[in-house]
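Appendix B. One record, verbatim.
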Amino acid sequence: MNKNEEDFKKAFDKIQASDELKRKTIENIENSKNKKNVYTLRLFPMLMSCAAVLLVIFSVGLFAAKNNTFKVATDDPNKVKEQVKYEPLEGENNDEDRKLDVKRFASEDELKEVIEKSKSSRYYSPVYNSSMSFSTAVEESAADTTSASASFGTNTKSAADYSTTNIQVAGVDEADVVKTDGKTIFYIANNVVYLVNANPLEEKAVIDIKEELEDVSNGSVSNLYLADNKLILIGYFAKKDKEIDDGYYPYWTYRYFTFVKIYDVADVTKPKCINSKYLEGNYLDSRMIGDYLYFVANKSFYYYSDDELVINDILPTYYENEDEIKTIASTDIVYFPDYYANNFMMISGINIKTGETSEIETIYGGSSTIYCSEKYMYLVRQDYRYDKDKSCIYKVKLDEGKTEIVAKNTVNGYIINQFALDEYDGNLRIATSEENYNMFAQRYIQKNHMYVLDDDLIVIGKTDDYGRGERIYSVRFVNELAYVVTFKQIDPLFIMDLSDPSNPKITGELKIPGYSSYLHPYDEDHVIGIGYETEENKWGGVSNKALKMTMFDVSDIENPKEDFTIEIGDYYSYSPVTSNHKALFFNKERNLIGFPISGDSRGFKVYKIEKDKFREYAELTNDSWYSYYDSRIIYIEDQFYTLSNTKIVSYDMNTLEKISELKINESSSASSRWYDMVY
């Protein structure tokens, strides 16, 4: 310990405050560190010591004014004790963040002024395309409509007996690379959409998106929906914008657009495009609720301090069908004071039956993750600031294709994916991980939060500091409970009781080797985890040993148990389901679960869920070699179907005998299309 650190500790010890208060103060100081400029901060330890003393004195008075109690987790997640009521940290629930102050730019000059300020902004808000596409069955009929959690199980014999997409929220469909109506399979492979008769396998038509889009480059289709004889395709393309001649080599600039194209497929042999809409920017994600599709695009722009800022060059644009391109006016763009970005986010709704579109809502700033209930869309923007990670949440009301921002707030930490959010009884629950630099330990300290926010996105409850030193790997909400997996050396599964929104609490914890990166509800007393088994390595850490699937018994929320588990493959093995929930095959009626897998061989594993084990039911091979991430296994009645970029194969679900095979790369010259697309 150097002299400055000794001075700090001596000064701190002179403060007459409880040990708990001192611990919280230390954490507050740690949270304010600039983890990206650690060495710079070390030049000012004495200044920080003085700040710590003042902070303690202020905190003592602040805590003394509070007389309510609130339960939070201590450093030992198994121990819960009475403590002062939750007090928001910096950036949580402050007046600017919790008060919705929807403003629109008054003029182009005001927009220009805000953008120019972004050069010196402390914020860094990258936007990623977080949309993923996967598939298969989940039961929607028995859902609790008060919860955003998808219901248990899958289709039953009384319902249509075929796969549907494995979704997060009952009644809120998600885009995928494959959909079926039980008769026809609609599948994206090699940038081509195949319309295939299911029994027997026979290609009925193809939609080559490059032929559908004129005067564009790099066109690609990535997702689709199917409803009421309407096939909805979502993708992107680049459109030539300006030709630049800099005196050396003339070149074109491009504008990138997200497209939604609606096809009438009542006659699957003759799909007909009946409506199209285009938003400038990269496709983020989408949801379909009833007859309405909502989709989001992020448009980034680049502005350098030496360049002259021309607003018309950066404003987002859109158009429908073959209409002229229109520009979003500056005065139509929503912004929030003291926030700077280099992107715009556009939200649009479409009635898939009539083709009618709503007004586009445009926000200055982007988003990286979408969570959607039947009435609201939550857009989460990750802010990587100079001192700590934060998640900014926009709440958007959905009403028959129309969208309206109704609330906004910011919480500490970042989210892992859409499953880190859930709406229940009007409240939003969100699980985040936070990483801050500890000056004394000279390392990053990780901790995790569970927030409960009310209808106005005001934080009304919080469980803090569980899984300290680890980060969140998976989350699943089921009604009043939350299941959270954190990991560093072992896999703690935490169970949280959220029945009292103002007092969320950890009720139980199970520690086992490895980790689960996807959690799937099996029934009211069991949750299935899919992830990796781990083992110690020679460097003192852990390495993946094999894929792993575990059945957790959560009937006693204070004492969760591992009922049984199975290791799959070896450390080379991989399945897209670990990061892509739609890759899951799940048939509750037959107690079957499966997913694509790669390693020594590529194929599809299907397991029978029995009383005390996962029994391997089928291993279906497929010679997919490209875009294995989008391979799928679905079912229609008594047949399995495996889908890859090279072929579709059907099997008898009972005997596992191959029934038929369709080589899609040969039947439609798809391989040459893919080659042309890439090269």
